[in-house]
Structures are given as C-alpha cells and as structure tokens.
Amino acid sequence: LAGGIILGVALWLRHDSQTTNILYLQLGDKQAPNTFYVGIYILIAVGAVMMFVGFLGCYGAIQESQCLLGTFFTCLVILFACEVAAGIWGFVNKDQIAKDVKQFYDQAFQQALMAESESNNGKAVVKTFHETLDCCGPDNAIAVITPLWRDDLCPKKDSFLKKLTESSNCHKKIDELFSGKLYLIGIAAIVVAVIMIFEMILSMVLCCGIRNSSVY
C-alpha cells in the first residue's frame, strides 16, 4: 500500500499540468531545466520496487520462509539507503532547481523583449510561463510595468487598475511552485522511511520467531 501511494504521488507530480507546461519548454536549442524530474523518477522507481518487495515480504510471512524474509529485509535496507541518498540530494538541490528555472525564464524574457524575438520562440516561452503561473515579469518592478507596455506577453486583465494590482512576480511564483512540490515529496519520503523502519524490525522479529519455532 505504501509503495502504491508513493507511486501514485510520483506519477501525479510527473504529469502535473503546471510543471509539465514549464519543464517541456524549449528556448531555441536550449531545453528547460529538468533536474526536478530526477527526484520524481527516483520516487517512481522506489514506489514500484516497494510494491514488489511488499508482496515478497507478505508471501514470505505466509510461507514462513526465512530465506524470503531475509531477502525482504535486504531489499528494504537497499531501498532505505537509496531513499536517504535521494533525500540528501533533494535537500542540497532544492534551491538550485528553482534557480535554474528562473534563469531559463529570464533568458526567454530578455529575448521576448528584443526586436528579433520572432526568430526564436522567446515570446512563446514567456507567455507559457505567464499563463501557467498567472504572473508577469521577473521581479516586482518589471511585473507592474510590463503589462502596461507589453500586453502581448502578460495574461489579460480587465482593467488598467487590475494590471497594476494583480500583476505577480514570476520569480516568486516559480519558487512557490517548486517549494510546494518538493515539500510534498519530502513528506512522502519521511512517511515511507518510517514505514520501512517498522517493516525491517518486524521482518527480523518474524524471521527470528520462525527460526526459534523450527528448533522445537
């Protein structure tokens, strides 16, 4: 069940419309940073393997097989080590992911403001960011000014006043998007780690119980 939950959360994060709209963008020959997906693929792999390993442990318990329970314990130790490594990697790179996406957005925004922006797809990339995140401009000052002189780049607002009051900083929106997703991944990883610790303890207790009962 834990493996299925992790797999479900990972697949939802992988196919979430906001992240896919942004991370599949391409600016000329440059692809949007997809470091975020590395963590998602690790979660998908862990969830799938956990489902298989859970079945292995359940079958080993029913058959009272020390060999299967020992294999189950070994697999859990390996999975736990991988999860800890992925958690450390995610903690180290949590700010870098948003930073890379913001740099990609800034490059597209600069190209979109240039006269020759039609020759590349800078305007299309920027509009996708703006429409997906409902924002405009890389920082607060430009976010307020940009809709006034570049209506073609920003989400349409009903009035001049709304343009001034509702224009939102895209850098802030990018931070919110990825920090929220990474927070969810972190919670899922902690829950799974706790479950795995209990699984390892119980599998060893059961294995020792089977060994002792076979003596009698």
Automatic annotation (TrEMBL):
Chain segments annotated as transmembrane: 36-62, 68-92, 182-206
GO MF annotations in UniProt: lipid binding
GO BP term, pick one: adaptive immune response
Pfam name, any one: Tetraspanin
Membrane topology: Multi-pass membrane protein
Alphabetically ordered keywords of this record: Adaptive immunity, Cell membrane, Disulfide bond, Immunity, Lipid-binding, Membrane, Transmembrane, Transmembrane helix
Record-linked InterPro entries: Tetraspanin/Peripherin (IPR018499), Tetraspanin_animals (IPR000301), Tetraspanin_CS (IPR018503), Tetraspanin_EC2_sf (IPR008952)
Cellular compartments per GO CC: basolateral plasma membrane
Subcellular location: Basolateral cell membrane; Membrane
Primary location recorded for the protein, binned into one broad class: membrane
Cysteines engaged in disulfide bonds, as pairs: C135-C170, C136-C154
Gene3D superfamilies for the chain: Tetraspanin
Family named by the database record: Belongs to the tetraspanin (TM4SF) family.
The protein's name: Tetraspanin
Organism: Oceanites oceanicus (Wilson's storm petrel)
The organism's taxonomic lineage, starting at the top: Eukaryota, Metazoa, Chordata, Craniata, Vertebrata
Record gene name: Cd81
